[in-house]
Amino acid sequence: MNLPFDIPLPLAIQAVGALQISILCASALVPQQLNWKEAFAVLPKLHRQMYWIYGIYTAAAILTLGLFSLFAANDLAGDSRLAKMVCGANALFWGVRVCLQWVMDAKPFLTKWWLRAGYHLLTLLFLTFTVFYGWLALK
Q1: Domain parsing of the chain, residue ranges
Q2: What's the mean per-residue pLDDT of the chain?
Q3: Beta-carbon count within 10 A of 13 CB
Q4: Is 121 helix (H, G, I), strand (E, B) or coil?
Q5: 4 has pLDDT over 80
Q6: Of 23, 128, 120, 13, whose CA–CA distance to 71 is shortest?
Q7: pLDDT digits (tens, 9 = 90+) for 50-72
Q8: For the chain, which terminal residue's Cβ has fewer other Cβ atoms within 10 angstroms, N or C?
């Protein structure tokens, strides 16, 4: 099955997988941009550790889902139950993330044009991932 403009579906899956992994570049900027070192200094050590652990688990999930798309694109383009479940899990992951985007109060931290542009680009990517993988899961 091809997408519009004669793009083979596995190639589109790989491109979206690469975009997922690129999200990690933006994620790497978060601790510095939000001044985590100072902001978390008042928290107990366990709370600081838990925050980092949650961040690492989230990054690992994004990396894993992206790698599945990069290296198993032909399988994910198929109609197997496992392909549909992996795509459904990916859609659920990004669907939850895009919903959380609407309740986060990031505005005080979007002090430069490129931070605002990046924030809106991330929102668009989260929505794109949700719709694309949801479509793959349901096709």
Answers
A1: 7-138
A2: 93
A3: 25
A4: helix
A5: no
A6: 13
A7: 988 999 999 999 999 999 999 99
A8: N
